[in-house]
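Example record

One chain of 333 residues, shown exactly as stored in the release files.
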Amino acid sequence: MTFYEMEMIPSLSTQESFIVPIQDTQEARSILGLGDEFLDLFEKSFKVHVVLRSGGLEILGSPEDIQNSALVFEKLLELFRSGNAIGLHDVKYTIRMVKEKQDFDLHASIAESIPVFSKRGLIRPKTPGQRRYVAAIKQYDLVFGIGPAGTGKTYLAMAMAVSALKGGQISRIILTRPAVEAGERLGFLPGDMAAKVDPYLRPLNDALYDMIPVETMQTFMERGIIEVAPLAFMRGRTLNNSFVVLDEAQNCTIEQMKMFLTRLGFDSRAVVTGDVTQIDLPPSTPSGLVDVQSVLSGVPGIKFVSFTKEDVVRHELVQLIIEAYEQQRASRK
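Predicted structure tokens for this chain:
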């Protein structure tokens, strides 16, 4: 059913209703989505019925559901009227924040946009935690982003690195991560060294190709402007005028973390990301990411940013999965 057909549906006398004023059909399309792709989401999330009337969007349902869905529509209309396109994530995030009665500001995420385009458009932080993270990277030379999977820690750090490179603030980008995953070690993998480390570094390459054209990316890597390498390759180096991102840092040992942090040279910045609930080191080996939080706590020029499940921007099931594991850990204590 299209939103043009909806106007023919009469109001249901057994339900209360409220009309959200809209200016034209372009605004209706923006918040209902092309082909009404957002409409089912609104109606299922709040158990309401939405009808396009000549004066606006009529919402039918219980008083609480009407109030919540009207707030979602108003937030999205504000975003659209300020000149921004509305995406599926904006709709899902706004619905989630309203249902959880969280205070949020969609305009604040627009203000913190990163001047880098992905295949999905301009990259911008989408949650309060992501906004704090981007603001910290702009202000501090060393930032730690710690939190669950799907919160955009690595992707946003890489976007900030690409932005700094484009702006001439640094001359090269170095992306690295420890080659330790689920008990495997490099020596047991087939092929030469390049083939052995490729599976560990591929997620970083995939994110870069989402932000930089293939031809440009290949040129940058050939010239050493962008380097993607295992953490072990950082030993003995001094990284000047660079933006360095250490990913999956929960799998660094204490010695590796110290080695990495002491590689920073003049005019360099670093972002360290990780999830302390997904440590793949042997049980007897302490995580450098866990250790560094106490070692560097309070050191000037360093910022720790914590993410929560509310900052997850992947499939909505990811947040539910994280909640389930948190509940299981709590029950074991």
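Notes: The first helix runs from residue 3 to 6.
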